[in-house]
Amino acid sequence: MNIAGREVEWFPELDSTMLEARRDLRPGRVIVADRQTAGMGRHGRVWLSPAGEGLYVSIVLGVPPAPVLSLALGLAAVAAIGAGDLRWPNDVLLGGRKVAGVLAQSEQNRVIAGIGINVLQREFPDGLDTPATSLAMEGIETTREALLERLIEAVDRCVALPSEEIVRRFTAASSMVSGRRVTADGIVGVTCGLDASGFLRVRDDNGTERTILAGGVRPV
């Protein structure tokens, strides 16, 4: 299948598109599955992947690893959807609910970009870390094929941006990276922007500015 000028490997079912990408790290590979039996989220979490209801894709990037790439992929997901608030480092929210997530993994000096977008779901299980939504539930009509075309183009565009421009655009697209009271990596404080590498800065209640290297943020 050719989409956005790229040959897309579209499988009815995989354990994980990320795992399939690891098996052949040729730059430019695009792997999609209708269903994943072991979809991968950040920090070992599972990405729910019901058959035919979401876009589950991994892309092998021909660039060296860099922390800022996660931010670039979040920007690409928002561009493909056409809406969304970015929660550092790589969740896309609509109406405060998670609609997409990004996972960037380094493999042999390559980066695998894993992106999951909820497209057609009408319900989600209870007990999720973050309440979820889908494009259909938010009134955004699209097909997975059209969404994938926009996503491929956006990933190519955003990954090619200079690091400082990625940081600037992510800051502009996020309501949480500046002036929000949050908890992050066990620290409670107010966000005060991103550093040059894209890491989050938080000023704790003692006035000490700390850099958050991993994890995520939650408003308090």
Please outline the helices and strands.
Blueprint: E1 2-3, E2 6-11, H1 17-22, E3 30-33, E4 54-61, H2 68-81, E5 85-87, E6 91-94, E7 97-107, E8 110-118, H3 144-159, H4 163-173, E9 178-184, E10 187-194, E11 200-204, E12 209-212, E13 217-219
Describe the structure.
It contains four helices and 13 strands. It is globular, with a radius of gyration of 17 Å. The protein has two domains: 2-173, 2-Layer Sandwich (BirA Bifunctional Protein, domain 2), CATH 3.30.930.10; 178-219, SH3 type barrels (Roll), CATH 2.30.30. Helix 2 (68-81) packs antiparallel against helix 3 and helix 2 crosses helix 4. The model has no long low-confidence stretch (mean pLDDT 91). The strands form two sheets. Strands 1-2-3-4-8-7-6-5 form an eight-stranded mixed β-sheet. A five-stranded antiparallel β-sheet has the order 12-11-10-9-13, with no helix packed on it. It has helices spanning 17-22, 68-81, 144-159, 163-173; strands at residues 2-3, 6-11, 30-33, 54-61, 85-87, 91-94, 97-107, 110-118, 178-184, 187-194, 200-204, 209-212, 217-219.
